[in-house]
Amino acid sequence: MKRNLPFIMLFVAMWFFVAGLYPFPYLIAVGKQVDFTIMQPVLIATGAMMIPFIFMMYAWRKHPPRP
């Protein structure tokens, strides 16, 4: 668990960032109408932003950061 804590914190921070920047899931949850054509580029951009984090995760697995 200690070894994976940086990964967990990174994904939690990214989740808060994405949830704060793109509040579409919250709008859907409270019953507001959301145009899904607006959500498509947002989801594509979010997926593109995750690519460097995935590569960083593999790099950290080979060379973990020193505490």
Uncertain segments are none
Query: In oligomeric terms, what are we looking at?
Result: single chain
From N to C, what is the helix and strand string?
A: HHH
**What's the count of strands?**
0
Distance between the termini: 14 Å
- How many structural domains? 1
Mean pLDDT: 77
Determine the strand fraction and express it as a percent band: under 5%
Give a brief outline of the structure.
This protein is mostly helical and 67 residues long.
Explain the overall architecture:
The chain has 67 residues and is an all-alpha fold. It has one domain. The protein is 75% helix and 0% strand. The protein is built from three helices and no strands. The chain has helices spanning 5-21, 24-29, 36-62. The longest helix is centred in the last third of the chain and has 27 residues, at 36-62. It is elongated, with a radius of gyration of 15 Å. It starts with a helix and ends in a 5-residue tail after the last helix. The mean pLDDT is 77.
